[in-house]
Amino acid sequence: MNVKSIEKKGNEATIVVEIDKELMESGVNKAYLKARKQIMIPGFRKGKAPRKMIEAMYGAHVFYEDGLEEIFPEVYQFAVLDQDVKAIGRPSLTDMQISDENIVTLTLTTETYPEVTLGQYKGLEVEKAPAEVTDAQVQAELDRMAQNVASTETVERAAEMGDTANIDFEGFDNGVPFDGGKGDNFDLKLGSGQFVPGFEEQVVGMTAGEEKDIDITFPENYTAELAGKAVVFHVKLNKVTVTNVPELDDEFAKDVSEFDTLEELKADIRAKAVEQAEKQSASAFENACVEKAAENTTVEMPKALVESELDNQMDRFGYQLQMSGYSMEQYAQMMGGDVNTMRNAFRPAAEKQAKITVTLEKIAEVEGITVTDEDMEAEFEALAKQYELEVAKVKEMVPAEELTANLKTRKAVKVIVDSAVAVAPAAKTEE
Fold this sequence. Notes:
By secondary structure, this protein is an alpha+beta fold. It has three domains: 112 residues, Alpha-Beta Plaits (2-Layer Sandwich); 144 residues, no CATH class; 94 residues, Chitinase A, domain 3, CATH 3.10.50.40. 46% of the residues lie in helices and 21% in strands. The protein contains 13 helices and 13 strands. Strands 7, 8, 9, 10 and 11 form a five-stranded antiparallel beta sheet that branches. Strand 8 and strand 9 form a beta hairpin. Helix 7 packs across helix 10, helix 8 packs across helix 10 and helix 11 packs across helix 12. The radius of gyration is 34 Å and the shape is extended. It starts with a strand and ends in an 8-residue tail after the last strand.
Protein backbone atom coordinates (compact mmCIF):
# COMPACT_ATOMS: atom_id res chain seq x y z
CA MET A 1 0.00 0.00 0.00
CA ASN A 2 1.02 3.59 -0.52
CA VAL A 3 -0.39 6.67 1.22
CA LYS A 4 -0.40 9.31 -1.48
CA SER A 5 -1.60 12.23 0.66
CA ILE A 6 -3.01 13.23 4.04
CA GLU A 7 -4.86 16.52 4.34
CA LYS A 8 -5.95 17.75 7.76
CA LYS A 9 -8.46 20.53 8.24
CA GLY A 10 -9.87 21.26 11.66
CA ASN A 11 -11.15 18.03 13.12
CA GLU A 12 -11.22 16.22 9.78
CA ALA A 13 -8.59 14.32 7.82
CA THR A 14 -8.73 13.17 4.21
CA ILE A 15 -6.42 10.28 3.31
CA VAL A 16 -5.70 9.07 -0.22
CA VAL A 17 -4.25 5.57 -0.26
CA GLU A 18 -3.28 3.27 -3.11
CA ILE A 19 -3.98 -0.45 -2.58
CA ASP A 20 -1.56 -3.10 -3.80
CA LYS A 21 -3.05 -5.27 -6.55
CA GLU A 22 -2.18 -8.42 -4.62
CA LEU A 23 -3.94 -7.23 -1.46
CA MET A 24 -7.00 -6.09 -3.39
CA GLU A 25 -7.12 -9.38 -5.26
CA SER A 26 -7.10 -11.34 -1.99
CA GLY A 27 -10.06 -9.31 -0.72
CA VAL A 28 -11.99 -9.65 -3.97
CA ASN A 29 -11.46 -13.41 -4.01
CA LYS A 30 -12.71 -13.73 -0.42
CA ALA A 31 -15.79 -11.71 -1.35
CA TYR A 32 -16.40 -13.96 -4.37
CA LEU A 33 -16.11 -17.15 -2.32
CA LYS A 34 -18.69 -15.82 0.16
CA ALA A 35 -21.10 -14.54 -2.49
CA ARG A 36 -21.03 -17.37 -5.03
CA LYS A 37 -23.15 -19.64 -2.81
CA GLN A 38 -26.14 -17.43 -3.57
CA ILE A 39 -25.47 -16.78 -7.26
CA MET A 40 -27.11 -18.71 -10.06
CA ILE A 41 -25.88 -18.53 -13.68
CA PRO A 42 -27.44 -20.56 -16.48
CA GLY A 43 -25.44 -23.69 -17.15
CA PHE A 44 -23.98 -23.92 -13.63
CA ARG A 45 -25.34 -25.34 -10.40
CA LYS A 46 -26.10 -22.79 -7.67
CA GLY A 47 -22.85 -21.84 -5.95
CA LYS A 48 -20.63 -23.33 -8.67
CA ALA A 49 -20.39 -20.42 -11.13
CA PRO A 50 -16.75 -19.39 -11.87
CA ARG A 51 -15.71 -15.92 -10.79
CA LYS A 52 -14.86 -14.85 -14.36
CA MET A 53 -18.34 -15.82 -15.54
CA ILE A 54 -19.96 -13.78 -12.76
CA GLU A 55 -17.72 -10.78 -13.50
CA ALA A 56 -18.48 -11.07 -17.19
CA MET A 57 -22.21 -10.98 -16.48
CA TYR A 58 -22.34 -8.35 -13.69
CA GLY A 59 -19.22 -6.30 -14.32
CA ALA A 60 -15.49 -6.70 -13.76
CA HIS A 61 -15.60 -4.90 -10.44
CA VAL A 62 -18.73 -6.49 -9.02
CA PHE A 63 -16.86 -7.86 -5.96
CA TYR A 64 -14.63 -4.83 -5.32
CA GLU A 65 -16.83 -3.14 -2.73
CA ASP A 66 -17.22 -6.33 -0.67
CA GLY A 67 -13.57 -7.13 -1.30
CA LEU A 68 -12.57 -3.81 0.19
CA GLU A 69 -14.59 -4.66 3.28
CA GLU A 70 -12.59 -7.88 3.61
CA ILE A 71 -9.23 -6.06 3.67
CA PHE A 72 -10.39 -2.90 5.46
CA PRO A 73 -8.70 -3.76 8.80
CA GLU A 74 -5.33 -3.87 7.03
CA VAL A 75 -6.10 -0.66 5.12
CA TYR A 76 -7.14 1.08 8.33
CA GLN A 77 -4.01 -0.03 10.16
CA PHE A 78 -1.69 1.20 7.41
CA ALA A 79 -3.49 4.33 6.20
CA VAL A 80 -4.75 5.62 9.53
CA LEU A 81 -3.10 4.14 12.62
CA ASP A 82 0.42 3.83 11.20
CA GLN A 83 0.20 7.43 9.93
CA ASP A 84 -0.67 8.66 13.44
CA VAL A 85 -4.05 9.94 12.31
CA LYS A 86 -6.13 9.99 15.48
CA ALA A 87 -9.38 8.95 13.86
CA ILE A 88 -12.68 8.89 15.71
CA GLY A 89 -14.82 5.98 14.66
CA ARG A 90 -14.67 4.32 11.28
CA PRO A 91 -13.52 6.47 8.32
CA SER A 92 -15.95 7.04 5.45
CA LEU A 93 -15.08 5.95 1.94
CA THR A 94 -15.72 9.06 -0.15
CA ASP A 95 -14.17 7.91 -3.42
CA MET A 96 -12.80 4.78 -5.07
CA GLN A 97 -10.94 4.89 -8.36
CA ILE A 98 -9.91 1.76 -10.30
CA SER A 99 -7.28 2.21 -13.00
CA ASP A 100 -6.99 0.25 -16.22
CA GLU A 101 -4.29 -1.79 -14.48
CA ASN A 102 -6.80 -2.58 -11.66
CA ILE A 103 -4.90 -0.43 -9.15
CA VAL A 104 -7.40 0.81 -6.55
CA THR A 105 -7.08 4.30 -5.08
CA LEU A 106 -9.27 5.12 -2.08
CA THR A 107 -10.16 8.45 -0.54
CA LEU A 108 -11.01 8.10 3.16
CA THR A 109 -12.46 10.88 5.29
CA THR A 110 -12.55 10.73 9.06
CA GLU A 111 -13.16 12.98 12.03
CA THR A 112 -10.04 13.23 14.17
CA TYR A 113 -9.37 13.70 17.84
CA PRO A 114 -9.40 17.45 18.57
CA GLU A 115 -6.61 19.75 19.59
CA VAL A 116 -7.19 20.46 23.27
CA THR A 117 -5.82 23.60 24.92
CA LEU A 118 -6.06 23.49 28.69
CA GLY A 119 -6.88 26.54 30.71
CA GLN A 120 -6.44 26.75 34.48
CA TYR A 121 -7.14 23.42 36.11
CA LYS A 122 -5.03 23.72 39.27
CA GLY A 123 -5.76 26.03 42.18
CA LEU A 124 -9.35 26.60 41.12
CA GLU A 125 -11.58 28.41 43.60
CA VAL A 126 -14.79 26.44 43.84
CA GLU A 127 -17.77 26.79 46.15
CA LYS A 128 -18.27 24.00 48.66
CA ALA A 129 -21.43 23.73 50.72
CA PRO A 130 -20.94 22.88 54.40
CA ALA A 131 -22.17 19.47 55.53
CA GLU A 132 -24.94 20.68 57.83
CA VAL A 133 -27.76 18.71 59.39
CA THR A 134 -30.65 20.59 61.00
CA ASP A 135 -32.86 19.57 63.89
CA ALA A 136 -35.76 19.52 61.39
CA GLN A 137 -33.98 16.87 59.32
CA VAL A 138 -33.43 14.70 62.39
CA GLN A 139 -37.08 15.15 63.37
CA ALA A 140 -38.21 14.26 59.85
CA GLU A 141 -36.29 10.98 60.02
CA LEU A 142 -37.78 10.20 63.42
CA ASP A 143 -41.26 10.90 62.02
CA ARG A 144 -40.57 8.62 59.06
CA MET A 145 -39.48 5.82 61.40
CA ALA A 146 -42.60 6.34 63.50
CA GLN A 147 -44.84 6.18 60.42
CA ASN A 148 -43.17 2.90 59.40
CA VAL A 149 -44.26 1.23 62.66
CA ALA A 150 -47.60 3.02 62.99
CA SER A 151 -50.74 0.93 63.25
CA THR A 152 -54.19 1.54 61.80
CA GLU A 153 -57.64 0.87 63.19
CA THR A 154 -61.17 1.25 61.91
CA VAL A 155 -63.32 3.75 63.80
CA GLU A 156 -67.12 3.97 63.95
CA ARG A 157 -67.61 7.71 63.67
CA ALA A 158 -67.88 10.47 61.11
CA ALA A 159 -64.78 11.08 58.98
CA GLU A 160 -62.46 13.87 60.10
CA MET A 161 -59.48 15.62 58.57
CA GLY A 162 -56.43 13.41 59.04
CA ASP A 163 -58.44 10.18 58.78
CA THR A 164 -58.16 7.76 55.88
CA ALA A 165 -61.46 7.33 54.08
CA ASN A 166 -61.94 4.21 51.98
CA ILE A 167 -64.32 5.26 49.22
CA ASP A 168 -65.97 4.23 45.96
CA PHE A 169 -66.49 7.17 43.61
CA GLU A 170 -67.57 7.99 40.08
CA GLY A 171 -67.59 11.36 38.35
CA PHE A 172 -70.31 12.59 35.97
CA ASP A 173 -70.23 15.45 33.48
CA ASN A 174 -73.86 16.42 32.79
CA GLY A 175 -74.90 12.93 33.84
CA VAL A 176 -72.30 11.16 31.68
CA PRO A 177 -69.35 9.32 33.33
CA PHE A 178 -65.97 10.68 32.23
CA ASP A 179 -62.64 8.86 31.78
CA GLY A 180 -60.47 8.60 34.87
CA GLY A 181 -63.29 9.64 37.17
CA LYS A 182 -64.00 6.26 38.79
CA GLY A 183 -62.38 4.31 41.61
CA ASP A 184 -63.30 1.51 44.01
CA ASN A 185 -61.95 0.89 47.53
CA PHE A 186 -59.70 3.93 47.21
CA ASP A 187 -57.88 4.98 50.39
CA LEU A 188 -57.97 8.77 50.58
CA LYS A 189 -56.03 10.58 53.29
CA LEU A 190 -58.29 13.50 54.13
CA GLY A 191 -56.37 16.74 54.08
CA SER A 192 -53.63 15.38 51.81
CA GLY A 193 -54.75 17.46 48.85
CA GLN A 194 -54.63 14.36 46.68
CA PHE A 195 -58.00 15.04 45.06
CA VAL A 196 -59.48 18.07 43.33
CA PRO A 197 -59.90 21.08 45.70
CA GLY A 198 -63.18 20.82 47.59
CA PHE A 199 -63.56 17.06 47.28
CA GLU A 200 -61.93 15.97 50.54
CA GLU A 201 -63.68 18.66 52.56
CA GLN A 202 -67.05 17.27 51.48
CA VAL A 203 -66.13 13.73 52.53
CA VAL A 204 -65.54 15.02 56.06
CA GLY A 205 -68.61 14.27 58.16
CA MET A 206 -69.67 11.18 56.20
CA THR A 207 -70.05 7.86 58.05
CA ALA A 208 -69.42 4.29 56.91
CA GLY A 209 -72.09 3.12 54.45
CA GLU A 210 -73.23 6.65 53.62
CA GLU A 211 -73.54 7.78 49.99
CA LYS A 212 -73.75 11.33 48.68
CA ASP A 213 -73.21 13.49 45.60
CA ILE A 214 -70.36 15.99 45.74
CA ASP A 215 -70.36 19.06 43.52
CA ILE A 216 -66.90 19.96 42.20
CA THR A 217 -65.58 22.53 39.72
CA PHE A 218 -62.27 21.57 38.15
CA PRO A 219 -59.50 24.19 38.16
CA GLU A 220 -58.88 26.15 34.95
CA ASN A 221 -55.38 24.63 34.68
CA TYR A 222 -56.70 21.06 34.71
CA THR A 223 -56.72 18.75 31.67
CA ALA A 224 -58.31 20.28 28.58
CA GLU A 225 -61.33 17.95 28.70
CA LEU A 226 -62.30 18.96 32.26
CA ALA A 227 -60.70 22.37 32.86
CA GLY A 228 -63.18 24.71 34.53
CA LYS A 229 -66.07 22.24 34.32
CA ALA A 230 -68.65 21.73 37.06
CA VAL A 231 -69.12 17.99 37.66
CA VAL A 232 -70.76 15.69 40.21
CA PHE A 233 -69.01 12.86 42.02
CA HIS A 234 -71.16 10.12 43.52
CA VAL A 235 -69.28 8.91 46.60
CA LYS A 236 -69.82 5.98 48.94
CA LEU A 237 -67.80 5.84 52.18
CA ASN A 238 -66.87 2.25 52.98
CA LYS A 239 -64.93 2.76 56.21
CA VAL A 240 -62.89 5.24 58.19
CA THR A 241 -59.47 4.37 59.61
CA VAL A 242 -57.07 6.29 61.79
CA THR A 243 -53.32 5.90 62.01
CA ASN A 244 -51.88 5.46 65.49
CA VAL A 245 -48.35 6.85 65.49
CA PRO A 246 -46.26 5.87 68.54
CA GLU A 247 -44.95 8.52 70.90
CA LEU A 248 -41.36 9.53 70.26
CA ASP A 249 -39.86 8.46 73.57
CA ASP A 250 -37.32 6.01 75.00
CA GLU A 251 -39.67 3.07 74.46
CA PHE A 252 -39.99 4.00 70.81
CA ALA A 253 -36.19 4.13 70.50
CA LYS A 254 -35.90 0.64 72.01
CA ASP A 255 -38.53 -0.72 69.62
CA VAL A 256 -36.99 0.62 66.41
CA SER A 257 -33.25 0.56 67.13
CA GLU A 258 -30.46 -0.88 69.26
CA PHE A 259 -30.48 2.24 71.48
CA ASP A 260 -32.04 2.57 74.92
CA THR A 261 -32.93 6.25 74.80
CA LEU A 262 -34.43 8.66 72.29
CA GLU A 263 -31.43 10.98 72.66
CA GLU A 264 -29.07 8.18 71.65
CA LEU A 265 -31.22 7.44 68.62
CA LYS A 266 -31.25 11.13 67.67
CA ALA A 267 -27.47 11.29 67.98
CA ASP A 268 -27.09 8.26 65.71
CA ILE A 269 -29.49 9.71 63.13
CA ARG A 270 -27.56 12.99 63.17
CA ALA A 271 -24.17 11.27 62.84
CA LYS A 272 -25.31 9.22 59.84
CA ALA A 273 -26.93 12.26 58.25
CA VAL A 274 -23.73 14.27 58.69
CA GLU A 275 -21.69 11.47 57.12
CA GLN A 276 -24.07 11.36 54.16
CA ALA A 277 -24.07 15.16 53.85
CA GLU A 278 -20.26 15.19 53.83
CA LYS A 279 -20.20 12.61 51.01
CA GLN A 280 -22.73 14.62 49.01
CA SER A 281 -20.80 17.85 49.60
CA ALA A 282 -17.51 16.22 48.56
CA SER A 283 -19.11 14.73 45.44
CA ALA A 284 -20.70 18.04 44.46
CA PHE A 285 -17.38 19.84 45.06
CA GLU A 286 -15.52 17.32 42.88
CA ASN A 287 -18.06 17.67 40.07
CA ALA A 288 -17.91 21.46 40.26
CA CYS A 289 -14.10 21.41 40.12
CA VAL A 290 -14.05 19.19 37.05
CA GLU A 291 -16.75 21.24 35.32
CA LYS A 292 -14.83 24.46 35.97
CA ALA A 293 -11.62 22.95 34.57
CA ALA A 294 -13.56 21.89 31.46
CA GLU A 295 -15.07 25.36 31.11
CA ASN A 296 -11.52 26.75 31.01
CA THR A 297 -10.56 24.35 28.21
CA THR A 298 -10.55 25.48 24.59
CA VAL A 299 -11.51 22.79 22.09
CA GLU A 300 -13.47 22.45 18.86
CA MET A 301 -15.51 19.37 19.71
CA PRO A 302 -15.93 16.81 16.90
CA LYS A 303 -19.50 15.70 16.26
CA ALA A 304 -18.47 12.05 16.52
CA LEU A 305 -17.36 12.44 20.15
CA VAL A 306 -20.60 14.15 21.10
CA GLU A 307 -22.68 11.54 19.29
CA SER A 308 -20.74 8.74 20.99
CA GLU A 309 -21.37 10.25 24.42
CA LEU A 310 -25.01 10.81 23.46
CA ASP A 311 -25.29 7.12 22.53
CA ASN A 312 -23.86 6.17 25.94
CA GLN A 313 -26.29 8.39 27.83
CA MET A 314 -29.27 7.12 25.85
CA ASP A 315 -28.17 3.51 26.44
CA ARG A 316 -27.87 4.09 30.20
CA PHE A 317 -31.27 5.78 30.36
CA GLY A 318 -32.80 3.04 28.24
CA TYR A 319 -31.46 0.43 30.64
CA GLN A 320 -32.98 2.29 33.60
CA LEU A 321 -36.33 2.43 31.80
CA GLN A 322 -36.10 -1.28 31.03
CA MET A 323 -35.61 -2.02 34.73
CA SER A 324 -38.86 -0.11 35.35
CA GLY A 325 -40.72 -2.05 32.68
CA TYR A 326 -40.75 0.63 29.96
CA SER A 327 -39.19 0.92 26.54
CA MET A 328 -37.62 4.12 25.27
CA GLU A 329 -40.46 4.50 22.76
CA GLN A 330 -43.15 4.10 25.44
CA TYR A 331 -41.51 6.66 27.72
CA ALA A 332 -41.10 9.13 24.85
CA GLN A 333 -44.81 8.82 24.01
CA MET A 334 -45.75 9.37 27.66
CA MET A 335 -43.70 12.59 27.57
CA GLY A 336 -45.47 13.74 24.43
CA GLY A 337 -42.58 13.24 21.99
CA ASP A 338 -40.51 10.59 20.27
CA VAL A 339 -37.02 9.10 20.68
CA ASN A 340 -35.46 11.87 18.57
CA THR A 341 -37.02 14.46 20.87
CA MET A 342 -35.48 12.69 23.86
CA ARG A 343 -32.10 12.46 22.14
CA ASN A 344 -32.13 16.21 21.51
CA ALA A 345 -33.02 16.77 25.16
CA PHE A 346 -29.93 14.77 26.19
CA ARG A 347 -27.62 16.58 23.76
CA PRO A 348 -26.52 19.53 25.99
CA ALA A 349 -25.49 17.10 28.76
CA ALA A 350 -23.62 14.96 26.22
CA GLU A 351 -21.76 17.98 24.86
CA LYS A 352 -20.78 18.98 28.39
CA GLN A 353 -19.61 15.46 29.31
CA ALA A 354 -17.66 15.06 26.06
CA LYS A 355 -15.73 18.26 26.82
CA ILE A 356 -15.05 17.03 30.36
CA THR A 357 -13.72 13.75 28.94
CA VAL A 358 -11.23 15.36 26.55
CA THR A 359 -10.15 17.78 29.29
CA LEU A 360 -9.35 14.95 31.70
CA GLU A 361 -7.54 12.99 28.99
CA LYS A 362 -5.39 16.04 28.19
CA ILE A 363 -4.60 16.61 31.86
CA ALA A 364 -3.53 12.97 32.17
CA GLU A 365 -1.23 13.48 29.20
CA VAL A 366 0.24 16.78 30.43
CA GLU A 367 0.73 15.49 33.96
CA GLY A 368 2.35 12.29 32.73
CA ILE A 369 -0.21 10.18 34.58
CA THR A 370 0.42 6.45 34.33
CA VAL A 371 -1.34 3.34 35.59
CA THR A 372 0.80 0.68 37.23
CA ASP A 373 0.22 -3.05 37.39
CA GLU A 374 -0.47 -2.58 41.10
CA ASP A 375 -3.19 -0.02 40.28
CA MET A 376 -4.81 -2.47 37.88
CA GLU A 377 -4.73 -5.39 40.29
CA ALA A 378 -6.19 -3.28 43.10
CA GLU A 379 -9.02 -2.12 40.84
CA PHE A 380 -9.77 -5.65 39.61
CA GLU A 381 -9.92 -6.83 43.23
CA ALA A 382 -12.21 -3.94 44.21
CA LEU A 383 -14.57 -4.74 41.33
CA ALA A 384 -14.53 -8.44 42.22
CA LYS A 385 -15.50 -7.59 45.80
CA GLN A 386 -18.20 -5.17 44.68
CA TYR A 387 -19.87 -7.66 42.35
CA GLU A 388 -19.00 -10.76 44.40
CA LEU A 389 -17.07 -12.40 41.57
CA GLU A 390 -13.70 -14.07 41.18
CA VAL A 391 -10.91 -11.70 40.15
CA ALA A 392 -10.18 -13.87 37.10
CA LYS A 393 -13.82 -13.55 36.01
CA VAL A 394 -13.69 -9.77 36.30
CA LYS A 395 -10.55 -9.69 34.18
CA GLU A 396 -12.42 -11.61 31.48
CA MET A 397 -15.34 -9.20 31.60
CA VAL A 398 -13.56 -5.83 31.83
CA PRO A 399 -11.14 -4.89 29.01
CA ALA A 400 -7.75 -3.81 30.38
CA GLU A 401 -7.65 -0.79 28.03
CA GLU A 402 -11.00 0.45 29.31
CA LEU A 403 -9.93 0.06 32.93
CA THR A 404 -6.62 1.83 32.27
CA ALA A 405 -8.41 4.80 30.71
CA ASN A 406 -10.83 4.94 33.65
CA LEU A 407 -8.01 4.94 36.21
CA LYS A 408 -6.14 7.68 34.33
CA THR A 409 -9.29 9.78 34.32
CA ARG A 410 -9.77 9.33 38.06
CA LYS A 411 -6.16 10.32 38.71
CA ALA A 412 -6.66 13.43 36.56
CA VAL A 413 -9.74 14.32 38.61
CA LYS A 414 -7.64 13.97 41.76
CA VAL A 415 -5.07 16.41 40.36
CA ILE A 416 -7.82 19.00 39.89
CA VAL A 417 -9.60 18.44 43.20
CA ASP A 418 -6.51 18.15 45.43
CA SER A 419 -5.26 21.55 44.27
CA ALA A 420 -8.65 23.28 44.35
CA VAL A 421 -9.51 25.87 46.98
CA ALA A 422 -12.90 25.47 48.62
CA VAL A 423 -14.77 28.74 49.20
CA ALA A 424 -18.02 29.39 51.00
CA PRO A 425 -21.09 29.56 48.73
CA ALA A 426 -22.25 33.03 47.83
CA ALA A 427 -25.23 34.20 49.85
CA LYS A 428 -28.51 33.71 47.99
CA THR A 429 -30.83 36.68 47.67
CA GLU A 430 -34.31 35.85 48.86
CA GLU A 431 -37.15 37.11 46.71
